[in-house]
Write a structure and sequence with these properties.
Strand order of the largest sheet: 2-1-4-3-5
Shape: elongated
Number of strands: 13
Radius of gyration: 27 Å
Largest sheet: 5 strands, antiparallel
Strand content: 25-35%
Length: 290
């Protein structure tokens, strides 16, 4: 089916819509119907054929190309969002609630305002909602988000020196596990493998499939292997260079010597489940819990 990809936020998930007989270029503003009513979005993928299995049915059509009036209304909504954010901050302080406002979103038809916030636990904001509804004269929704979503909305600089991936190009958050850090030979020190959000860095996922493929050819540390020079114990492996470092028992000597081999030159005789670096359950929970 021919579709166009539309994004409603600067960075976020891309949704497919039916362009009909229109050829819509990237960067074009469009009005589409969503579960929240009519919304203004920006085309980030022009007309493209995709498999029907990749489409969530029913596929809705593009209502219209955004007119100058639609664009003015969208920009006016952005100004209203800024005003609503200041009002909400004032009301949160007035009610003494332990919540941190992150972002606000006003629907295109002005029927509802959604406030995004973070908090350490549950927050009773019933009185706040009543106060905001009275002040803003529209429906109010408060939505608690996690630290990953907060990082995406706020943006920042990662340890690599670049702006955060989640706030730049990532459409969806991919599952990231501590095993990925182990496979890639990274330190399990939480401060070195966690991102600005305090969770495991999203970039651990990028090359994981390559590491998994390369690791299939390599033994593990501590494994007993047969080398061209005799039996040895694996000391370490270089995943990217595909080199095995091991201590080989020389039959003509009483000691061992360190040697390096290609995976094709060796044969694993006995597997040994090595003990990984220690990471506490509390640290692991903080890194992986969304």
């Amino acid at each position: 089916m021919v579709v166009v990809g539309v994004r409603f936020k600067r960075v976020g998930k891309i949704y497919y819509f039916d362009p009909g007989d229109k050829q819509i270029e990237v960067g074009t503003g469009v009005i589409v119907e969503t579960v929240r009513g009519l919304e203004y979005g920006t085309v980030v993928i022009s007309n493209r054929e995709v498999e029907e299995g990749d489409i969530v049915s029913p596929l809705k059509a593009i209502t219209r190309i955004a007119t100058s009036h639609d664009i003015e209304k969208y920009q006016d909504n952005k100004r209203k969002e800024a005003e609503a954010m200041e009002i909400c901050k004032d009301r949160v302080k007035k009610h003494g609630l332990g919540m941190k406002l992150i972002d606000v979103e006003l629907t295109f038809d002005n029927s509802k305002i959604v406030f995004f916030f973070t908090a350490d636990g549950r927050v009773d904001f019933r009185e706040l909602v009543k106060d905001l509804a009275s002040a803003l004269k529209t429906r109010i929704e408060l939505r608690q988000i996690g630290v990953r979503d907060e990082a995406r909305m706020v943006n920042g600089i990662g340890i690599c020196g670049r702006t955060l991936c989640c706030a730049t190009f990532l459409g969806d958050f991919q599952p990231v596990s501590i095993k990925m850090a182990k496979d890639q030979g990274l330190s399990l020190n939480p401060s070195k493998i966690s991102g600005a959000c305090g969770r495991l860095m999203c970039c651990l996922k990028y090359e994981q499939s390559n590491y998994e493929e390369l690791l299939k050819k390599l033994p593990g540390e501590g494994d007993i292997i047969l080398t061209p020079d005799g039996e040895g114990t694996v000391l370490s492996v270089s995943v990217l260079r595909q080199i095995v470092k091991c201590a080989v028992k020389r039959p003509d000597k009483d000691d061992t010597e360190v040697a390096f081999y290609d995976p094709e030159e060796i044969k694993v005789l006995k597997r040994k489940f090595r003990k990984e670096e220690y990471i506490s359950k509390e640290e692991l929970r903080e890194l992986t819990d969304d």
